[in-house]
Design goal:
With about 170 residues, this protein is of the alpha+beta class. The protein has an 8-stranded mixed sheet with strand order 1-2-3-4-5-6-8-7, covered by helices on one side.
Length: about 170
């Protein structure tokens, strides 16, 4: 099992079987990982988009790239003290021809405002930075989404452009 640990969090890269359980057997997944049951609250729109991305992107890509599955899978964010899944984080796949990959993340509203998303995103970016194929990590955030903008700023991203109300953020990997 691939896992990144911080002082307050565990980031667990889900394998193919675990991805299936995430969408069709969350209780079984939590039990398999030894986690306390916890239902992450998401808006209905985001929840539908999230599940769709697991089915349309993560599952087929993890199956197609077993050696590099960490770049395609969904990583669950586990709060160590509470021992429960509180959110998720993931990538847009292996670095493209420019050496870039995209990151996205979310944390349950009950755990928001505690720096946990910043800690998770920073830890994953640090881990990614060890891969020589990666030159930069990018993220898109609706302009004015202050919490996500602060997260990216804190871990070293800079806004590059704005297009149709969405900011493109980029962080060079050293």
């Amino acid at each position: 099992m691939l896992e990144i640990t911080t002082s307050r969090l565990r980031l667990i890269a889900l394998n193919l079987e675990q991805l299936h359980l995430l969408t069709d057997g969350l209780g079984q997944l939590q039990e398999q990982l030894g986690l306390e049951p916890f239902e992450v609250r998401l808006s209905p729109e985001f929840d539908a988009e999230y599940i769709e991305s697991i089915h349309d992107f993560c599952l087929p890509q993890v199956e197609a790239h077993p050696q590099d599955y960490a770049w395609f899978t969904h990583w669950i964010i586990v709060h160590r003290k509470d021992n429960c899944r509180i959110g998720g984080i993931g990538l847009g796949g292996l670095p493209d021809e420019r050496g870039e990959s995209m990151i996205g993340y979310f944390v349950d509203e009950r755990y928001a405002g505690q720096g946990l998303a910043t800690e998770a995103a920073g830890a994953l970016c640090d881990w990614l930075g060890k891969d020589g194929r990666l030159q930069a990590i990018i993220a898109t955030v609706p302009v004015g989404h202050a919490a996500s903008e602060r997260i990216l700023q804190k871990i070293g991203f800079e806004m590059v452009t704005v297009d149709e109300g969405v900011g493109l953020w980029r962080m060079e990997v050293k």
